[in-house]
């Protein structure tokens, strides 16, 4: 082989080596260092992502790279750890089952002692980086509650109900609900009114397909008082009046459908029917009593005689009899004989014994008058009787 040939080959090899070195130098500037033990020029680690929010048990892949003092990013080998939840060696994190804020940490793999001695670097704490994981449940309504859960009411009574919700995370929240009831009625605001029929009924609150129910027991309210209208009245004998009795509960609410009995304290003055119809009979006062479930109500009825409105005289005309006096033998002075009126047919007659006595006196008074009164019709109009003697 000639000298020139050997020289040309050596120059070619040198050219290839120079090109290779230049390529390696460029690559070292453009690409991160491959995964493996890091050199002492990595001062800190960057974890990606630096924070995230996950559902319980949800997974997320984390990554880490190194940063040099000059600000260059380099590939590193990281050791992964987590406070809460779990993470694999490759950085795959699984969130904890409980809500909370957790830390995922990447630590730079420490160089071996040989590498540290060869580089002349002293052993120091390995750089690290971390990320915060917020574990949160998606808020969702899981339950509705009705308060109070049970209630007891009289017929016609009222009860205010309320409702609230509970989320899947355990928080209690206000919710808008639709109300319904199997008996009685309930307003859009949850005010329940018991009906007139006793029994157990359900009050339901429903929101987004989730419902809850309370139980209402309706019982008959006891009669506390009895009201009578009118509470007093004045009637004339023969008059009639309808009384109305209303049983009331302790709050003064009417209690329809309750049995009522009636009585009177003075049946001679006024009596009362089973329906409360009062009939006035004679002058006087009567206390009318309505009784329901042992409770009484009273009304006073005063009865007076019917006043005189007019007077009718019958007959409208009258015929009277005129007195006629009859005597025997002698007229008295003035032509009249004295008569003493008697009941019924008026008569004035000297009795027989008187005449006999007169005759026994020798007839001195034998001719004293004997008077008869004969009633005759006379339309004098003043009601007096005229007396006329008869011989």
Describe this structure in words.
This protein has five domains: 1-31; 44-112 and 126-135, Immunoglobulin-like, CATH 2.60.40; 141-219, Immunoglobulin-like (Sandwich); 225-304, Immunoglobulin-like, CATH 2.60.40.1080; 320-390, no CATH class. Helices cover 11% and strands 42% of the residues. It contains three helices and 32 strands. The protein has a four-stranded mixed beta sheet with strand order 2-10-9-6, with no helix packed on it. The chain is rod-shaped, with a radius of gyration of 66 Å.
Break the fold down into its secondary structure elements and pairings:
Layout (H helix, E strand, L loop, with lengths): L2 H28 L13 E5 L2 E4 L4 E3 L1 E5 L5 E2 L3 E6 L2 E2 L4 E3 L5 E9 L4 H7 L8 E8 L5 E7 L2 E5 L3 E3 L1 E6 L4 E2 L4 E4 L3 E2 L4 E3 L5 E9 L2 E10 L5 E5 L2 E5 L3 E3 L1 E5 L12 E4 L5 E3 L4 E4 L3 E9 L2 E10 L15 E7 L25 H9 L11 E7 L8 E4 L1
Parallel strand pairs: 2-10, 12-20, 22-29, 30-32
Antiparallel strand pairs: 1-4, 3-8, 4-5, 6-9, 7-8, 9-10, 11-14, 13-18, 14-15, 16-19, 17-18, 19-20, 21-24, 23-27, 25-28, 26-27, 28-29, 30-31
Give me some keywords for this one.
mainly beta; 391 residues; 3 helices; single chain; 5 domains; disordered C terminus; Immunoglobulin-like
Structural class: mainly beta
CATH architecture of the largest domain: Sandwich
State the separation between the terminal residues, measured CA to CA.
227 Å
Classify the beta-strand content into a percent band: 35-45%
Mean of the pLDDT scores? Answer: 78
Find the CATH topology of the largest domain.
Immunoglobulin-like
The outline comes out as rod-shaped
Rounded to an integer in angstroms, the radius of gyration calculated over CA atoms is 66 Å
Number of helices: 3
Number of strands: 32
Low-confidence stretches: 16-38, 112-118, 324-336, 339-356, 360-391
């Amino acid at each position: 082989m000639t000298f020139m040939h050997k020289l040309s080959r050596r120059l070619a090899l040198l050219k290839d080596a120079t090109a290779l070195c230049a390529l390696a130098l460029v690559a070292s500037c453009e690409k991160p260092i491959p995964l493996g033990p890091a050199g002492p020029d990595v001062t800190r680690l960057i974890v990606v992502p630096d924070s995230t929010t996950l559902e319980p048990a949800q997974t997320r892949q984390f990554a880490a790279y190194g940063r040099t003092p000059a600000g260059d990013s380099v590939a590193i080998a990281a050791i992964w750890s987590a406070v809460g939840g779990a993470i694999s060696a490759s950085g795959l994190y699984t969130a904890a089952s409980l809500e909370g804020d957790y830390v995922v940490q990447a630590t730079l793999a420490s160089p071996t002692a040989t590498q540290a001695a060869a580089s002349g670097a002293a052993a120091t704490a390995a750089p690290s980086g971390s990320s915060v994981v917020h574990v949160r449940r998606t808020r969702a309504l899981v339950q509705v509650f009705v308060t109070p859960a049970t209630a007891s009411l009289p017929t016609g009574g009222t009860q205010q109900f309320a409702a609230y919700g509970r989320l899947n995370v355990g928080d209690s929240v206000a919710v808008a609900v639709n109300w319904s009831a199997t008996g009685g009625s309930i307003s859009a605001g949850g005010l329940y009114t018991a009906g007139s029929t006793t029994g157990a009924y359900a009050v339901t609150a429903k929101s987004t397909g989730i419902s809850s129910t309370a139980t209402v027991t309706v019982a008959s309210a006891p009669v506390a008082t009895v009201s009578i209208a009118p509470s007093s009245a004045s009637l004339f004998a023969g008059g009639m009046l309808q009384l109305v009795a209303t049983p009331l509960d302790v709050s003064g609410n009417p209690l329809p459908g309750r049995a009522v009995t009636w009585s009177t304290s003075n049946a001679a003055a006024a009596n009362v029917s089973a329906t409360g119809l009062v009939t006035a009979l004679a002058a006087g006062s009567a206390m009318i009593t309505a009784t329901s479930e042992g409770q009484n109500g009273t009304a006073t009825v005063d009865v007076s005689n019917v006043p005189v409105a007019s007077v009718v005289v019958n007959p409208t005309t009258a015929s009277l009899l005129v007195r006629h006096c009859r005597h025997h033998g002698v007229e008295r002075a003035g032509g009249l004989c004295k008569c003493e009126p008697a009941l019924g047919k008026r008569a004035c007659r000297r009795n027989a014994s008187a005449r006999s006595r007169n005759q026994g006196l020798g007839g001195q008074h034998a001719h004293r008058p004997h008077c008869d009164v004969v009633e005759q019709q006379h339309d004098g109009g003043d009601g007096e009787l005229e007396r006329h003697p008869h011989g």
